[in-house]
Structure formats: C-alpha cells, structure tokens
Amino acid sequence: MGSIFLPHLVTGWHVDQAILHGDDKIVVIRFGNDASMECMQVDEALYGIAEQVKNFASIYVCDTTEVPDFNEMYELWDPVTLMFFYGNQHMLCDFGTGENNKLTLVVTDPQKLIDVIETIYRGAMKGKRFVVSPVDFSKDKKS
C-alpha cells in the first residue's frame, strides 16, 4: 500500500532527472516489481519513514518491469533493490553483504532504513562516495 503514496519514476528520463536534481539530498530509489510482496514490504517501510527523512532524502520507486532501462546497467535482478545517489553520483555503502552498490534485502525495520540513509547522507556531506553501514546485514535474509 505504501508504494501508491511514494513518487513513481515512470520512464528512464524520470529516473535520470531524479538523480540529477537531488537538491542536496540523498536520492533513494527502490527498483523492483511493484506487484511483488518484497517490494510491497519495503515500500511500506519507506513510506513510513519518508516524513522523518524528508530534510535529507527523497524517496522514489521505479517498477523495473515498466522501466527496464537500468536493469542491465545496475544489475537489477533481485526482487527488490535500494540504490542511493547524491549530486548525480552513485553512493556506495558497505552493508556487510559483499554488495556495495545496492541493498538487495527486504528491510522492513524503519530505524535500520533511517540509519542507513542518514549515514549515507553524512558521508555525502563530507565528500565521501563510500560509507560503511551502521547496520550489518551480513546475517540477514530479511531485516
């Protein structure tokens, strides 16, 4: 239900524009199939924190079945993928999973999401493109 309240990026151009014009905020994009249970769970959590992070993050969703433009470039093969951008640059984060480009787990804990987004934002403010997540997802299948 949360995804209907989050801004949808309906074309590749819209995705590019969101990344280009982040307005000094972290741009969080959830890539995946809107109809999948995993995406619905993550969207619900993202919607729940959107108000709390609005000063330093903009949250968007992109259905990879409708906008396949980035599937190959970003290797969007997982049911749900969270990616982070700042100043037209892809932000990297060590989540403890071996995958630093994106978060591909179903994270439903609002505080974990806030902590990750805030850490990425703080790193971006210091000019860093790579940060270490305060949450270790190495043992999580679902968080």
Features:
143 residues, 3 helices, alpha/beta, Spliceosomal protein DIB1, single chain, globular, Glutaredoxin
Please tell me about this protein's structure:
- With 143 residues, the chain is of the alpha/beta class.
- The protein has one domain (2-132): Glutaredoxin (3-Layer(aba) Sandwich).
- Helix content is 29%, strand content 20%.
- The chain has three helices and six strands, in the order αβαββββαβ.
- It has helices spanning 12-20, 37-53, 110-125; strands spanning 26-32, 57-63, 80-86, 89-90, 92-94, 130-132.
- The chain has a four-stranded mixed sheet with strand order 2-1-3-4, sandwiched between helices. A two-stranded parallel sheet has the order 5-6.
The biggest beta sheet is recorded as: 4 strands, mixed
Q: What is the number of domains?
A: 1
Q: What is the CATH homology-level superfamily?
A: Glutaredoxin
Mean of pLDDT: 94
SSE order:
HEHEEEEHE
- What is the number of helices? 3
Shape: globular
Give the low-confidence spans: none
Using the 3D structure, state the CATH architecture. Answer: 3-Layer(aba) Sandwich
CATH topology label: Glutaredoxin
Count of DSSP strands = 6
Percentage of residues in helical conformation: 25-40%
Strand content: 15-25%
Which secondary-structure class do the elements indicate?
A: alpha/beta
CATH class: Alpha Beta
Distance between the termini: 19 Å
Computed over alpha carbons, the radius of gyration is: 14 Å
Please list the strands of the largest sheet in the order they lie side by side: 2-1-3-4
